[in-house]
Structures are given as structure tokens and as C-alpha cells.
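Sample intake sheet
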Amino acid sequence: MRKINIFDTTLRDGEQSAGVNLNLHEKLEIARQLERLNVDIIEAGFPAASKGDFESVKQVAAIIKNASVVGLARSKQSDIDAVWEAVKGGVSPRLHTFIATSPIHMQYKLKQTPEQVIETAVASVKYASKFFPTIQWSAEDACRSDFDFLVKIITQVIDAGATVINLPDTVGYVNPKEYGEMFAYIQEHVPNIHRAALSAHCHDDLGMAVSNSLAAIENGVTQIEGTINGIGERAGNASLEEVAVALHTRQDYYQANTRLKLNEIKRTSDLVSKLTGMVIPPNKAVVGKNAFAHESGIHQDGVLKEKTTYEIISPDLVGVKSNSMVLGKHSGRHAFRTHLVEQGYQLEDSDVNRLFELFKELADKKKEITEEDISALLVEQQLTNDEDYYVLSALQVQYGTNQIPTATITLTNTDGQTIQEAATGAGSVEALYNTLERCIATAIVLDDYRIQSVGAGRDALAQVYVKITMDGIVSSGRGTAQDVLEASAKAYLNAVNRVVNIKNSQQEKVSI
């Protein structure tokens, strides 16, 4: 049974999804959960991009003990230096460096000849070998590259010190047969390929990222790269949970497996979904709400008689649990903390205390507190960990079937100023957002607005996700409250505060 390493790039390639802006606390929370999931490698970011990225990669490397933390670098010494400074404190620091190898990229993007590309790649790997015990080299747009050129450059970067060779389908162009044949060709023609591991990184533009990843495994690849829930640029990356469960379920065929703790998949998926604001489609394989639902009478009858008639994956395998009550209004602080520890959450005392107060407030309003509620509260607290420029102080909305909806809002900013405005709209939410736009005094476009309940019942929490464009920056935001309008206001302000933080970080860009 071959061991397949899992290279998770949720924090790097996944965060490049349009509108996703993770702050430091959110990145650390995802990194901890990826460690609980037992991934082998965590690509934490691109340290040379900005001081904020550098710091987040450095802190992830400092807290992760059971996985290798890697940073991305272009084929530039300054990028490589930034990665080393960020990850050198980790237990198993490694570098991921890349350069484009397809004719179209070399000609139009790099404006370099093939010989110059080889020279640049070899020089960067040689330089990196002074610091890093493990160097992963990637041929960007490998699938549209000339195979003989790939053989030439791969041979030389391995001689220079590369220990992992990644051949990505950068634009999601090829099919499984073609992708597998590329790896077979490389293994047959690169004379020193036995000195490096092969890695696959697939994008989902044509919906074949998971299939291509599995085809790569069939053709000798021992490392698969991807993201949780398949998030990422454009149509996203290979969905790691789908790859892992496919290998587990079809061990008879692939004769390969991962070391992932599959019962942590659902929790990891939910956390990434909540923190990125990217909702999981109900029919998503492995983790979708309908993944284990049986509507057809024939299917229901079969499952009741024998689950394996229609259920090839058991819910327990991936950590899907019943939504039972876990705590009540009379639960004390100790019981609450114990529950958090049992569920795998690692929080500082101050964070537990703030979360406990939110829990008690909710317990006074809701009859039943579920695991979903606790998770929603945790996400809500994460939103308040960073210093926000705008804070919601008061909200009032007037609405009636024969009245014009009117919202009055009071905000407080970090300068100590109180801002109060009122505005109308065709509906309550529009009135609310028109008022907030007046408070912020900046044109804001609402690109997306989604609302869903946490659990069931009349007293369920409301979760609102928004995507906005402000000052040319696309940002997502989340808000949770029992009142839909309060949740809507929180989500909008969360997105605005992220834009403010992005603009502040851009002013601190590292020179690259």
C-alpha cells in the first residue's frame, strides 16, 4: 500500500479565491485544524508578498508541530530569503519555488528564452539548497509545456538540489489520460528522477481536478496538492477530501492511502467554509449536506435493509454527526471549557471567557444549543479578535407593509468618533446597507448576499455572507446573530473592515 503525502494549500492557493480575505487568527485556526486532520504539508502563504503574509506564515510555522510548513517563492533570491526567515523556526521547514515552463508563459509573461528559464531555475534551487533541507520545484503550466524541455529542466534542478518535482495543471486544461501520460514520460526520460518525489497540483477549470489527481497517483505520483472544499482561483483546486476518501474507499484499485484522519474531514470542511464565506453546495461530494441523504423511495428502502446498497461512504467515516444538544443554559464555565477541549478547540483563557459570555447570552434565548451553534459562536468571536476600524454600536430598523423601510445606525471607529446616519430603501436590508454606506462615506457595491440558518427551529441563529467591492478591492464578510438584520449589518461591516485592513497592509508591502 503506497503512502500518498497530502500537500494542503488552502491557506495559499485557496485564499486566492475571489473575495476571500483571511486574517491572522483565522489562518491560525485553519492551520491547527489541518494539523488535526493530519495533513503532511501545509503551504501557509507567500511570505514575500507583504509583511502581513510574512507574519502569518511565520506564526503558522511556529505553532505547527506535526506537519511541514512551506512558503511559496518565485525564482528570486529575495523571495527565497523571505520564505527561510518565515519558516526556519518550524519543525520541518521547506521551500516551494516555481517558474513557468510553457512556451506561452515563457514568451509573453517571463519574456525569457528556454535557456534563460533553465538558468534562472537552476540558480534559484542552488541558492535555496544552502538553507532548506527540502526544496519543492514546480514547473508552472507544465501540462502545456514541451515534454522534452521538461525533461531537460527537471534533470538540472534535481542536480541543483530539488527533492520534490511538482508538475501542475495550472489552468485545468488536460484530461486524466494526458496528465498520467506526462508523469509516465517524465519518469521514463529523466535519468535522475529517482532522487526526487513527484507531486501533482490540479485546477478544476474543466471539472477534472480530482480525476487528474487520481490519474497522477496511478502513474507513480506520491504527493497530491489541493485545498479543502476545492476552493481556489477561478474554478478552484482538487478537493483534498474527495481524493482522500476515494483512495480509502477504492484501496482495492489504487493500492494507495493517506495518513489523514478521515473523521476530521467534516469539521475541517465546515471551518474552512465558515471562515472563507464560501458555502458548500448541498450536492458536494463527501461533505455536502445531501451527501448522505436518500430521497428516492427505492434508495430509502435499500439503505434501511442494508446501508451498502446505496451508501458507499458511511457518515461516521468523515465525521458527520447528528445535531444533538450538547450544552444548556445551566452549564457552567468549566463544563463549557471541557466541551471545547473535547471538540479539539485550542483557545486562550481570555478567548474562552469571551466565548462563554456569548454562549450564555445565546442560551438565554435558545432552548437547545447544538454543536453547530458553538461553532458559529467561535467564528463570531474570531471576527472580533482583530482590531476593527468600524464597530456597530446601535441599530434600529423601521418596517411596515405601508411604510418606507428606514434604518438608523450608530458606528464607533478606532479614532473614537461616533458616526450616526439614517437612510431608506426598498426593503429592510437595502435600507440597512444604504445607511452603512453613508456612515462609511465610500461607494460600496454589494456583489453577493446570502443568508442561511444555523441548524433548525424558529430560534436558530442566522448566518449572513456578503461580498462587496470597495475602493477596487473585493472582500467577503460574515455575521452571525439571532436577528437577521443584525447579522446582515455585522457581515457588511466585517467585509468593510477587511478592506481597511488590506489597504493598511498594502501600505506596508515588502519590496520584492
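Comment: The two ends are 44 Å apart (CA to CA). Confidence is low (pLDDT under 50) at residues 508-512.
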